[in-house]
Fold:
Amino acid sequence: MQQTPHDLSEGVARFQREVFPAKAGLYARLAEAHRPTTLFIGCSDARVVPELITQSEPGELFVVRTAGNLVPAHAAGPDGVAASIEYAVAVLGVSAIVVCGHSDCGAMTALAEGRDLSAASSVAGWLRQADASVARTAAAGAGPDRLSALIRENVRAQLANLATHPSVARAQAAGTLTLRGWVYDIRSGAVTELAPTEDRPAPVAPVAPVAV
Structure:
C-alpha cells in the first residue's frame, strides 16, 4: 500500500483546536521562560520521538537530533551540534544529557553491513565519526548481533565525545551534570540504559534514574 503524505496543515489545525486550549496555561508560562532540565540527543529517524518516549511536556527537553545520534568530539571552528550542547549546558543549565540510540537504525545498519555510500558522500563523511565504534564491534560477527553491539557501542562513544566539550567537562567537574546512554527498541517500546562498559544493559526503571 502506498503511503500518503501526512497532512501537516490539518495537524496544525487540530493542535490549535484541541491540544493548545487544554494546555493554555502551560504555553503562557513557556512564552515567558525556557528552562529545560535535560538535553536529549537522539537520531533523526522519524520513528524516534523524544517527547513521546519520555512523556515529557513542552519545555522540558532541549533536543538535538542527528543521523545516527552522532556527537562530534569538540574541535575548533563553528559546529551546530557543539553550539547546541554549549547553549544547553552553559546557558540553560540542563542537569542531564541523554544520548539515545535505537533499534533498526539506518545509519548503524549501513555501517554494520558495510554498505556502499559513494552516492551519498555527505552521509558517508558524517558516519566516518563512527569508525572507531565499527572497529570495536568487528568481533561481534555479522547480522543482528553485530548491529545490536554497534548501536550500543555507538552510544557509549558519543558519551565519550560529549565529555570533550568544555562546557560539559566543567559541569561534570562541578557535579551539576549527569550523562546517560539509552537504547530505544522500536518494536517493544523498551528503553535500556547503558553503563560505559556494560554489555548487558538493563531496562530503564520507571522510578529513580539509573546512575551512569
